[in-house]
Amino acid sequence: MLIDTDLTGLPVLVVGPPGLTTSVVRRHERAGAVVTLASGPGDVTQEVCNRVRLAVLVGPAAGWASVRDALAGRCPVVDAPVPAAPRGRVVLVGAGPGGLDLLTLAGVRALAEADVVLTDRLAEVGDVARLAPGAEVVDVGKRPGHHAVPQGEIERIMVERARAGLTVVRLKGGDPYVFGRGGEEVEAAVEAGLPVTVVPGISSAVGVPGSAGIPVTHRGVSHVVTVVSGHVPLEEEQAQALVALGGTVVVLMGMHNLVPLTTALARAGLAADTPAAVVERGFTPDQRSIVGTLTTLPDLAVRGGASSPSVIVVGEVVRRSAVWARRVGADADGIAMDGVA
Ligand code: SAH
């Protein structure tokens, strides 16, 4: 339930047993109301009744006769029935790579309805707060000098808040299900008996190469794209399977393993002059691409000081890109600085 009316400054009394009123209070506060909370009939004093301009009786409070009598004739009284527990829910929202510009409309709507947002996207906490006014924004992500909240703890917070009747949005980079532990979080919500939905996001695996003008598939060039994690080096058999499959290889989380990755592909028979690229910090003002070949890319990346987050793309599709066309000197120096191509 979203409150569309602007209640700025309106003194509102919310009456109801503890635990049932949290989300009603939050929604009225989000609409600008100044909320007084009464958890039992004894809290509804004369002074309170004189002051408030609207009273909301939540769940069983609608049947508290002494409260109705005390409020009679003083202000409008609204009943807010409580649906059967659990009332809370979990929504996993993919934020896309980079800033929040690539959120879907469904994601924007989920944020607008959120009571709590658990976010990894530290740089944009202010933007999150703007899209989720009134929600508590909890930062559970990584940043230098700050340890990420462990996965189990994130799931515990998510379940606990939703069980308390709140709409919890878990905002995740890219798509929740692409190397994002979205599956585990959905399982945790399901095990807790909570309704859970997933709003997909644009994955960096496709969106970030695209932002540099690299099409991950191209008619007549590549009709296969394989997305792999570079978190650990490729096993020999995996590299052989990838090369046998052909097409485009997209590696996420692979910058610290760029040398073993390219070496494994070369050893598995991929041509040394296969075009390859690193696209760094996609969709940010610092976006940059480094293009070269399977052989030259690791060295170019070191010279260019490339770091995470970056997407590595290997395959003939790189030759079709704007950054390839703009590269500076074919073999000598494949570094192409670019904005969003
Ligand atoms: N769920 C995310 C991926 C999480 S794994 C998604 O669908 O995009 C994190 C990895 O994603 C990073 O190591 C990097 O390889 C990639 N990545 C995410 N955002 C990026 C960005 N803006 N620019 C480049 N790479 C990015």
Could you characterize what this model shows?
- With 341 residues, this protein is an alpha/beta fold.
- It has 3 domains: 11-80, Rossmann fold (3-Layer(aba) Sandwich), CATH 3.40.50; 89-202, Tetrapyrrole methylase, N-terminal domain (Cobalt-precorrin-4 Transmethylase, domain 1, 3-Layer(aba) Sandwich), CATH 3.40.1010; 205-336, Methyltransferase, Cobalt-precorrin-4 Transmethylase, Domain 2 (2-Layer Sandwich).
- The chain is 29% helix and 21% strand.
- The protein contains 12 helices and 15 strands.
- The strands form 3 sheets. It has a 6-stranded mixed β-sheet, with helices on both faces. It has a 5-stranded parallel β-sheet with strand order 7-6-8-5-9, with helices on both faces. Strands 2-1-3-4 form a 4-stranded parallel β-sheet.
- α9 (236-245) crosses α10 (258-267).
- The longest helix is centred in the middle third of the chain and has 13 residues, at 151-163.
- Residues 337-341 have low confidence and may be disordered.
- Bound molecules: S-adenosyl-L-homocysteine (SAH).
- Residues 97-98, 173-175, 178-180, 203-205, 208, 252-253, 279, 281-283, 308-311 line the site of S-adenosyl-L-homocysteine.
- Its EC number is 2.1.1.107.
- Belongs to the precorrin methyltransferase family.
- It is an enzyme of class 2 (transferase).
